[in-house]
Amino acid sequence: MAIRHGQLPATLHAAEPSPHVDWAGSGVRPLVEPQPWPETDRPRRAGVSSFGMSGTNAHLVLEQYDTPAPAEAESTDDVYAWVLSARTRTAVADLAGRLREHVAADPGASLAGTARALAARSRFEHRAVVVGTDHDELVRGLAAIAAGEAAAHVVSGVVRRDRVRPVLVFPGQGAQWAGMGAALLDTAPVFRDAITACETALAPYVDWSLTDVLRSGPEDGRLERLDVVQPASFAMMVGLARLWESMGVMPAAVIGHSQGEIAAAHIAGVLTLDQAAAVAALRSQALTALSGRGGMVSVPLPEQRVRQLLADWPGRLSVAAVNGPASAVVSGDAAAIDEFLATCTAGDVDARRIPVDYASHSHHVEEVEQQLRAALGSVEPTAGNVAMISTVTGEPVEGSAMDADYWYANLRQPVRFDAAVRAALDAGHDAFIEVSAHPVLAMGLTQTIADAGADATVCGTLRRDQGDRARLLRSGAEAFTAGIPVDWTAVYPGTPAELPQLPGYPFQRDRYWLTSPSETGDPGGHGLVGAVLPVADTDRWLLTGRVSRHTHPWLADHAVRGTVLVPGTAFVELAVHAADRVGAGGIEELTLHAPLLLPDSGTVLLQLWVDEPDEHGRRPITISAGAGADGQQWVRHADGLLAAADVTVSAAEGITGAWPPAGARPVPLDGAYDDLAQAGYEYGPTFRGLRAVWQEGDDLYVEAALPEPAEPERFALHPALLDAALHGLLASGWFHDLPPDATGRIMLPYAWSGVRLHAGQASVLRMRLRRTGPEQVAMLAVDTDGAPVLEAALSLREAAAGIGSTATSEQLHHVEWVPAQVAPAPLTGTWWVPAKLAQEAPGSVGYTGWAELRAADPDGTAVVVCPSAVDAPAAEAQTADLLELMQHWLAEPDTRIVVATAGMSAVWGLVRVAQAEFPGRVVLVDVDTPDGWLTSVAGLIGAGLTQ
């Protein structure tokens, strides 16, 4: 970069030169500030060293190169392919979004330059390609990729294999259409050169112009002539194959169907172009002698079933081709063909006549055997340089065997296309590209691959009436996104100096630190709660979790007057989740007492206690939060009642009919979130989901959607979506004393009642809000089909005036550095250990059973070692005894207990509950080593360590 820009950058971290170097006499000095690197009569050169522990590992000398003048690009009819790839689907979407913003801001940017820059980038398994003709079309394609939406000019896919071995497949007759080569002759030089060479090679055998035929329209009629259509199709396939090669797709093998074997043999290097042109022209001319006396029919049945049907026409009809497990072609006498079609129709077989009046691959061909052998006697095939799989034998064939005898067999014998494809699959080939003006073999290929139980890709090249460069690039994109090695730098060549600066790789910044499930939530589970624990010997439950701006960045999008608050809808979500886990019928009531502020750094601990049912089956619920590693200071933020399990759930009828209801007046939302921000409601992208509001009398009709990349599947109802739906109350000014008026009041959810969730994981809500009091609303939320999602009643309350102030924010703990104790003070009291460890733990008292330990009365700290239980009954017994023991000790003031265990989950959970109820008085030592863990614990005890 210094060479390119002509400037030497300042050396980092070298403001004060070393005193151990004689700088004055050295002729060099550190670069303490940037210096110009002027042009001279020679290129700039620089030495770059790599230093390791033993000295210089490598030394490079870089030299300035002359930037060549940009080559004049040949016409590509203004079609561009923008290629994106990344390690994950999310990263591809992120890259598309960044690129869209970049190019949308510069409508005059070079579209070809962007294509070149993207073509030069590294390739990863998740891929997407936008094909477009102008700036707007390409930007729309990027927007579709970023949103995860489908678009006609966007191709996406995931590469499933490290190495793809493509097979080029050349069909027989039937792919042709009028004007099939016109567009590429004008826009693709490689194709034009290949067609010119084919025209020269065909000239000795034909009296018509290949170029004229490929450009001709339907009125020309020459493509209906047998001696024209087959040579023209041959040339078309050769030209398209050369285009694939120019895009970096080199075949690992080739397969040709009937006359398609001629083009396949040439591409494989078996026949020269002159030889292949001779075979194509002379073969088609020989067939003209058979015109008018035969016919061919496509039959969608297995070969064996077709042969059974043909038993009624012995010697008159035969199987001409087997294209797939349920696809065959019948060929033979014209009259017999008519009879066969009538039989198929009567038997509900969807057989279809092929538009030819001759019978290839039947006994009719024997009439021209001598003519063909004589005409092709001079063909001298070679071994070739690409594997060729014969459709005459259904197996790989040596190129040198493809002489005049072979080409007669190619016309006389049935086409074993199905067998050839299976042979390719057996050889490890996993991608098939049909090289034709229209795909006619794709269905047979797909059926054969599926029948063989293989995993392979099938791609085409052009399509009927889609013969331009856009179609070619789209086919290239389909091949590329399937893993076929398309070289886009060959499509869009350019030097590094010509490449524009584009957004770099969108690293997803995955966090690799190990985290407990309670910190981030169970992967794939709930988004706020990570653990759900039953309390031993009770019908109480504890739900715990951790939230922070790091683990839940979307919460930072909900702020009031500069202070980030956990939205009130999150408490509703927690209560709904708890109700679901304990089998309650919903939320009878939930009152919010204090807002939960989210600090800039650090973690907030959440605890949701669900009590035992009362006489009516209702369960009290409490939601508290504490800051710091152990939540030293707990604040109750909400409490209420969960409805009884057998409560009658309202059969909400939803919202049926037109949406919005007829007569509802739309409420303008232009600048609504800006107005709310000025009033103190500061919503970030995740919470800006309000899409539309209508008013009809005392009813508001609101539509809200959850923005990407929120995860609705991790919540019963995502708090951001429910919160966004309630923004309609604020944005509409429905309550006259609500912002955004001049009062400066902040209204927050206060009390919820009758909350019933009918369907979860919604991403779009349509909600009816009905005013039931001065600051009260009833809500019914439905999905886009009108089916009920949620019903509830809500009361709002003005927030405390000090919300958002420093004093309020300081209620939560913040991370501070404190001096560490060099040697922790030993615990005082009695150390109780199993008797066999007493000698290894000086100062301890051994016990032989739990009864003996319970009978003692320690006056300070007791250390209890819980050995690993050998079976479930032993574990249950130890846990029950430990619970009783803890209740005995902890009932006395100023007592503490240390429990050491070897990974016993039941003991671990019990101690965690005790720690929550008796902060600072219960210590858990979890030692889980393969052998000798009791001795390890004894060593800790003997050393007097607290943990």
CATH architectural arrangement of the largest domain: 3-Layer(aba) Sandwich
CATH class group of the largest domain: Alpha Beta
Q: Terminal Cα separation, in Å?
A: 55 Å
Could you say how many structural domains there are in total?
Answer: 6
Secondary-structure content class: alpha+beta
Radius of gyration (Å): 39 Å
Kindly state the number of beta strands: 38
Task: Describe the structure in your own words.
This protein is of the alpha+beta class. It folds into six domains: 2-63, no CATH class; 80-162 and 489-498, 2-Layer Sandwich (Alpha-Beta Plaits); 166-291 and 358-484, Malonyl-Coenzyme A Acyl Carrier Protein, domain 2 (3-Layer(aba) Sandwich); 292-356, Alpha-Beta Plaits (2-Layer Sandwich); 519-551 and 568-642, Polyketide synthase dehydratase (Thiol Ester Dehydrase, Chain A); 831-942. The protein contains 28 helices and 38 strands. α7 packs antiparallel against α9 and α7 packs across α11 (273-287).
Keywords, please?
947 residues; alpha+beta; Alpha-Beta Plaits; 13-stranded antiparallel sheet; five-stranded parallel sheet; 28 helices; disordered C terminus
Summarize the structure.
This protein has 947 residues and is of the alpha+beta class. The model is unreliable at 70-76, 516-524, 736-742, 804-814, 822-828 and 942-947 (pLDDT under 50).
Helix-strand blueprint:
Elements: H1 2-5, E1 7-8, H2 23-26, E2 35-36, E3 45-52, E4 55-63, E5 80-86, H3 89-104, H4 111-119, E6 126-132, H5 135-147, E7 154-158, E8 166-170, H6 182-187, H7 189-202, H8 210-215, H9 226-246, E9 253-256, H10 260-267, H11 273-287, E10 294-299, H12 303-309, E11 317-324, E12 327-333, H13 334-346, E13 352-354, H14 369-375, E14 387-389, H15 404-412, H16 417-426, E15 431-434, H17 442-451, E16 457-459, H18 469-481, H19 488-491, H20 517-520, E17 531-534, E18 541-547, E19 558-560, E20 563-566, H21 568-582, E21 587-592, E22 596-597, E23 604-610, E24 619-627, E25 634-642, E26 665-666, H22 672-679, E27 681-683, E28 690-696, E29 699-705, H23 719-732, E30 747-757, E31 764-773, E32 776-782, E33 788-798, H24 806-809, E34 831-834, E35 844-847, H25 850-855, E36 861-866, H26 872-890, E37 896-901, H27 905-917, E38 922-926, H28 933-942
